[in-house]
Amino acid sequence: MPAPDRPNADQRAAFARDGYLVVPGVVERNAIEAALQVANHWLDDGFDSAQRDTYHAQSFAPEHIADPEIIGLLTQTDGLEIAESLVGQSLITPARAQITLRFPVARGQQPNALGPHLDGIPTPLNRVPTDGQIHNFTILAGVFLSDCPAGDHGNFTVWPGTHLETARWLRTHGTRVSDPGAFLAAIRDLAHETSQPTPLEVHAGDLVLAHSLLLHSSGRHHGPNIRYTVFYRLQTHRHAEVARASLTEPWLDWPTFNGPSVA
Question: What is the distance between the alpha carbons of residues 53 and 125, in angstroms, rounded to a whole number?
Fold first, then answer.
């Protein structure tokens, strides 16, 4: 198998500036269909309507987040190697994923968009420890299993440049989170003050890579189809040693980007 295409200089510069990268066509159709079969069978056989909010906060099809059809979307394709090339060092092979489904609203209803947020902050349902820490990682990887055209189709939405703005904010205000609700409100204000939301137009098989400090959300969904995505929160082998410091020095865990961080 030929080596995967590495992010080029222009893509790296864009990632440094914006905090995200879309890599088209990383996953082939047969792998997409195998993962969709897992998710769609679970919708028929395993979905518990009483757990709907928990699925949104944690993962749909939670019994299958370590299935080979799900993990292999990243590890049995070029996806993990592309992420490692962008970071500049090897990443721990993920043992589980997050399966996210976004559903259309009924005709005539106004859907709510999730506000910009930072991963690793506890909420009542997401099972992140309430210990005052931000449970961060190195890079977010998302494999899309369905097309997500322009417009309100539940698009994965990013606020470009906010990985740097978030680091600046944390340098000023500290990295302890004593009140998660107040912290998330402040982060939303930061996103709106420093950037504009960018809904990503992607196709089935595309890979999205995002810095862990990039503020992001799921957009409104007026479209006709379920949006299927599998996310992986990846860490370098040394991340545990630099986790807290990397909240204020966003390139500390990224040998590829050795320039000034947020100064």
Answer: 8
Q: Is 168 exposed, middle or buried (0-12, 13-18, 19+ CB in 10 A)?
A: middle
Residues near 21 by beta carbon (within 8 Å), at least 6 away in sequence: 7, 11, 14, 15, 86, 208, 209, 210
* C-alpha to C-alpha distance for 111 and 236, rounded to whole angstroms: 37
225-243 per-residue burial string, b: 16 or more CB within 10 A, e: under 16? ebbbbbbbbbbbeebeeeb
**How far apart are alpha carbons 19 and 16 in whole angstroms?**
6
CATH of 9-247, one of 2.60.40.420, 2.40.10.340, 2.60.120.620, 1.10.10.60: 2.60.120.620
Domain-wise residue ranges, the chain: 9-247
Tokens representing residue 28 in the block: 């082939």
- Confirm whether pTM is higher than 0.90: yes
Tokens of residue 97, six digits: 């994923």
Given this model, what pLDDT does residue 113 score? 61
Q: From CA 108, how far away is CA 193, in angstroms rounded?
A: 31
Give pLDDT tens digits for 18-58: 999 999 999 999 999 999 999 999 999 999 999 999 999 99
